[in-house]
Amino acid sequence: MFALLQQSFLDRYFDGLGYAAPFLFLVGAGAGLPVPEEVTMTGSGYLVFAGKVAFTKVALVCWVATLIGDTIPYLVGRFFGRKALRFKWVARILHPERMTGLAERMERHGIWAVFTCRFLPGLRMPGFFTAGTLRMPYLRFLAVDAAAACLMVPFYILIGRTFGESIRSLEESMVDYSEWLGFALLIILGTFLVRSVINHRDKQRLARKSADQGAESPDLDR
C-alpha cells in the first residue's frame, strides 16, 4: 500500500520530470510559489550525488530558470508599479513592509543593491520588484542578476552533492515513519469527516426544532 513511499521523494519526482523539475520549481518561485530556491538547488545537488542528473546540465537549467523567475517580479514592477500592491495576493507575496528603504538603497547603490538581493530570500522578490518600479534597464538588471546567480546556483548544488549521504540518511529515516504517518493522517481525516457529519445533523435537528416551536407558539397580536 505504501510502496511508493519506500522510494525517495526526490528520486520519484525526477524520474517523472527529469531536468524539468528544478526548472519548474525555480520559475514558480519567481512567480510566488512558496518553495525556497535554495532548497531546490540543494535538492538538485543531491541528485547529482545520486547519479540522477549531471552537474553541468542541472546547474545550467537552474541558472536559466532562476533568471526567468527573477524577471517576473521585475516586469510586474516595471509595467504596473506600486499599483500592483493593491491586489492582496501580490502584496502577500511581495511583502510591502520589506520595501522600506529598498528604493532609496537602489537609487544610492544601483546594481550592487540588486546583486545583494539575490542572496537575501526575504528581500529577493521585493528588491527585483522595486528595480522594476525604478525602471532599471532590463539588460542591466539581467546582467547583474545573472552574475549573482553564477555564484549562488553552483554553490548550493555543490552543498547538495557534498552532503548527499546525509540527505539520503534523513530521507530514509523519514521513510521509516511514513506508514505510521499515513495511518495517522487517515485517522485524523476520518475523525474530521465524522464530526462534520454529526455537527451538520445537529444543526439540521436544531433548525427543525426551532421551526416547530415557531409554528406552535400562539400569535400574540390576535
Output the keywords.
mainly alpha; 2 domains; single chain
Commentary on this structure:
- The structure is a single chain.
- This protein is mainly α and 222 residues long.
- It folds into 2 domains: 3-164, no CATH class; 177-215.
- It contains 11 helices and no strands.
- It has helices at 9-17, 20-30, 37-49, 55-80, 88-94, 102-109, 111-117, 121-133, 138-162, 164-176, 178-216.
- The longest helix has 39 residues, at 178-216.
- The protein is flat.
Radius of gyration: 26 Å
Taken together, the total number of domains comes to 2
What structural category arises from helix and sheet content?
Answer: mainly alpha
Beta fraction:
under 5%
Write a short abstract of this structure:
The chain is mainly α. It has helices spanning 9-17, 20-30, 37-49, 55-80, 88-94, 102-109, 111-117, 121-133, 138-162, 164-176, 178-216.
